[in-house]
Amino acid sequence: MTQDENWNLLIRQPGTPGYENSCPVIIQAHMDMVCEKEPDSVHNFDTDPILLKTDGDWVVSAVGTSIGADDAIGVATAMRILEDTGLEHPPLEIAFTVREEVDFYGAESFDASLLKGRMFINLDFEVDTELIAGSCGGFGALFRIPVGRRTAADMIPYKVTIGGLLGGHSGEDIHRGRGNAIVMLSRIVKAADCRLAAIDGGTNRLAISRDAAAVVYAADETCFEEVKAAFAELKKEIGAPADNATITIEPLSEAVMPLDQASADKVLTSILLYPNGPIEISGDFPGQIESSNNIGIIETSEDMIVITSEARGQHRSSFGYTEEKIKLLAGLIGAEAEFFTRYEPWEYKSDSRLRETAAATYKEMFGEDIDVLVLHAGLECSDFVSKIQGLDVIAIGPNCENLHSPTERVSIKSTDKHYRFITELLKNLK
Fold first, then answer.
1. Hey, where are the domains in the chain?
2. Which residues are marked as active site?
3. Which of 8, 184, 185, 228 has its CA 20 to 30 A from that of 348?
């Protein structure tokens, strides 16, 4: 076992009898998680353990938090393989990486020269009937909008809060129509006779925002009838995913000074024109998203409102197109755009012995074909593919739902199915 200065971990295990001279197989998962919680949760992620409970077939949070199934279930699967003395398998190289949810720095800094294997199984996926054969590249973006302020005589400050949306993973759930609280709130405020003072929402660029709040100034409460009506229409527009969405409106005794009208218009226009949600559909994989962008966070300071987003695309050209959109918008309204944490796509390859063996193993075990897809999310596979020539890669995992949200959960039965599948696959990779 070796650990580098960034806390990446590599564990080697010899092949079992009959497999001693087989080429090693690399199994990889990441050790970090996205920390999300309900607004009323008192959980402290810095000090408190993740508390779990079972709900039928599902493992869920006991205290209204994300549970880290992404990717603790991958780490747990790999550790179980290491402990299981009854398995037949080639030599194994278990790679555990850090900071996947932040900037992929763990995979980026991993010394791939330590790895002898040329078949690579990533355990950072969440549907047990699917096999991933490619993933997106992308980047984070900061969009800074300078603002000015001006007093609003005879106007009263109010706080308007939207909550109760489902949220979810900014890539894998972006096409599910769950609604983005930041965008919803901006649409409502834009339509009402009030002046924006502040807007804040979301907690992570990798998560679809579930909650957002705005401070607005209005002459009286009559404009909020428009706000409530607009919210009701948006709930209908989104449909079932917004069934539990709520809006609250409360007067404030004091608040930050409102934006001047030009700044307020600029901010709301920017949010409504900023790319959010699916952008293009894949031609190679019908029905799958080719590129998207997610407004994950918005924050207000005295002289600036900042949008933080995450762009994804199956090709460099597609997320480059999103970058160009953001640059053009910044130029039109006098904002500043900064891009960070760029990562490359893992592009689909038509020839793969590992993928073919996995598909044949799955069909033999479960009597049906496994679906081969390209994932609309970033996976660390891309970093390892770029470092190891000829690397043959797949990604698999058990059923998990609502990643990067307090309703995150993992299926017990599917975890068992997934473990039986991967161990049989290893047996077939002699």
1. 2-136+345-427, 139-343
2. 32, 100
3. 8
